[in-house]
Amino acid sequence: MAKAVRVRVSPSAPIIWHTWHRSGASGTRKMNLDPYLPVLLFIIVGIAVGVLPQLLGYILGPNRPDAEKNSPYNVASRPLKTRA
What we know:
Blueprint: E1 20-23, E2 28-31, H1 37-60, H2 67-70
Antiparallel strand pairs: 1-2
């Protein structure tokens, strides 16, 4: 069975990334999500760039259906409009 090894860390060692901290007297741990904010913002902006143009085109685009355009396609039927 492996024994636990105690490691001594120098107090002057730099803290590169501290995502956990203790809060309150109870000593409960809470995660600090500040480092993930730029990633979350990047994902939100990427989704907005992909969805907003399609949504605006759907809302602002023309919608003028008529009976001839909504009719089923038939090979034997005459074209809608032809140039002579």
